[in-house]
Amino acid sequence: MSAATPPGQPPQINHHAHQRIVPRHVQPPPPPGRSTVFRNLNPGERLVWVRRQSHLFLLATGAPLMLAALVLLLLHVWLGNNLPAVVEIIGVALLGIFVLHWLISDLWNWFFQFYVLTDQRVIKSRGYFNRQRDEIPISSIAQVRAEVPNIFYAIFNIGNVAVRPIGPEIELTGMANARDAADSILAIMDDPRFGLPPANAPGAPGGAPGGAPGAPTAAGAPGGQMPPLRNKKLQDDLNEMAQPDPLPAVGPPIVKAPFISFFFRKIPIRYLEGESIVEVVYRHWAILVKDEIIAIGLLIVGVGIGLFLDIRGDAMRGNLILAAGIGVAVVVGLLVYVNWADDVFILTTHRVIDIDRLFYILAEYSNDAPYSRIQEVRVNRNIVGKALGFGSIEVSTAGRKSALNISSIPKVFQIMDRIFEQRNQQKERDSIIAANKQKQTNLRWASVVAINLMAPVPDLRGIRVVQAMGQARQAGFKVTGVEERAAPGVVSGTVLDQTPTPGSVALPESDLRLVVAGPGGGGPPP
């Protein structure tokens, strides 16, 4: 267990919060190329990515055609001349019709369908002659669901992304790396600047050129770099005023894992900026026991039939059925256990994640609901759940009819309280981050105003006092005080020191005080 984040420090990302969690940060997409131009951006809107359905998804739509052609070819090879010509002609004609339909329907739709993500919208565009376009504002998105519905999708790394707003959802089907697409949508929801270079990175627009040391910057402020001030005291005062407020501390995560952990698959969680794991919740053990009844039944039937045949004298078949029954029961039992262990509910500092996996690799569903979109959390618990200590949680987001449902988990009321606690902390973090950004913006503009209003103090040291007064007037200052000091070897009336110091800045018409050499100093004239 790690200690809580100390006050004044940003939340620490606990990458090792759980042995199953594989930390992966959301990678910014590459800049859109010429082949992925979207010409319907709103003023000030930024294009994040443009994607089509996977080429392998297009190949999957043509799988029935290839299967029909293979069957027709096998019939021709197998039956040869015995295959009636009429059947062969009808088969070829039907195959041609199917190919024409695939070209007009599937291939045409694939070629003219694409998905767009900007910092303001998610867009699904399809059709050519009858162009249709569905759009969802980023601010309206309540949930993002990524799914790999079958084993073929899993093999070819294809999936669907369902973007769920308050109204009808948009489904982006057949996408390569669907989880990456869903994560980038969540990242844009969390921070519209996702994908942009850091404001202060060397070479970034508005950043410090070449990363020059000593150039104060205002992180998050427009323009990036803050003008330097020569007046150290004024600079220190402005920096003190702009000190960021501390973010809420992130405590140690709750990571109680069930037994037989070496059967678990890893869960890649792509962290958002500043995100960390809060709690990993598994379904109640009673659900595992209920689901294992099938495996126990297979074991009892196999052992019973095997022993019965052995008693009847058929030892060979009895031992074979006994071994098969035990083997099948063990395999089914392990699959049921893995399916139970892969149904995971994760709380982070930013969102609720519900992950369902069906029999290890057959299918995978991941539904994410940011805390900022959560409106209601409801607990359902029947008499059995009350006796054994489990229940279900429904997380309603921004008016969605389909709530995020997490069934049969222990300590449901504590989990509900933890969701609301994280939701409140998310609001507090957002408020503090916004205030800190505003402080940095104020610091930058205060520095600009100070530099524009103030003038650099000239260096008057080493010249005669009359000449110093003239230069001070030319620079916009006035000499209001002259103090004499003994300075052996220095000509009388020579300026030894001044206040304010040379190189600092001060308001025009400010007073300058000079220290000059007194009479009897001697020495050559300056």
Low-confidence stretches: 1-17, 200-224
* Total DSSP E strands: 21
Strand order of the largest sheet: 8-7-6-13-12-11-10
What characterizes the major β-sheet? 7 strands, antiparallel
- Strand residue percentage: 15-25%
Spatial gap, N to C terminus: 72 Å
Structure description:
The chain has 526 residues and is an alpha+beta fold. The chain contains twelve helices and 21 strands. The strands form six sheets. Strands 8-7-6-13-12-11-10 form a seven-stranded antiparallel beta sheet. Strands 2-3-4-5 form a four-stranded antiparallel beta sheet. It has a three-stranded antiparallel beta sheet with strand order 14-15-16. A hairpin with a 6-residue loop joins strand 15 and strand 16. Helix 8 (293-311) packs antiparallel against helix 9. The longest helix is centred in the last third of the chain and has 42 residues, at 412-453. The model is unreliable at 1-17 and 200-224 (pLDDT under 50).
